[in-house]
């Protein structure tokens, strides 16, 4: 049970009561965890494929160009997500 001397209590996601101090402590812990995550760097796209926004179906063998296009699409999307997280300050 939270210490009532630290302010009013609020329900957390599990329905347990938490107070403002506990929320602040949880946020600090989360910030520390996020800061501890290291940047793995952007993916380098050496596939030679072209980005078209679609993952195409591949059947059989000999579809190297289509497979490379798929990887190029994935690399572009992952890098866009990475950039967005950096712009929001959620990733270095």
Structure characterization notes:
This protein is mainly alpha-helical. Helices cover 45% and strands 7% of the residues. The chain has 2 domains: 1-36, no CATH class; 43-92, no CATH class. The chain has helices at 20-36, 64-87; strands at 9-11, 17-19. A two-stranded antiparallel ribbon has the order 1-2. The radius of gyration is 22 Å and the shape is elongated.
The residue fraction in helices comes out at 40-55%
Average pLDDT, to the nearest integer?
Answer: 75
User: What is the straight-line distance between the termini?
Assistant: 36 Å
Helix tally equals 2
- The biggest beta sheet, please? 2 strands, antiparallel
List low-confidence stretches. Answer: none
Number of strands: 2
Overall spatial form: elongated
From N to C, what is the helix and strand string? EEHH
Tell me the Rg in angstroms: 22 Å
Query: Numbering strands along the chain, what is their spatial order in the largest sheet?
Result: 1-2
Structural class of the secondary elements?
mainly alpha
Give the DSSP E fraction (strand runs of 2 or more residues): 5-15%
Number of domains: 2
Task: Give the secondary structure arrangement, pairings included.
Elements: E1 9-11, E2 17-19, H1 20-36, H2 64-87
Antiparallel strand pairs: 1-2
Features:
elongated, single chain, mainly alpha, 92 residues, 2 helices, two-stranded antiparallel sheet, 2 domains
Short description:
With 92 residues, this protein is mainly alpha-helical.
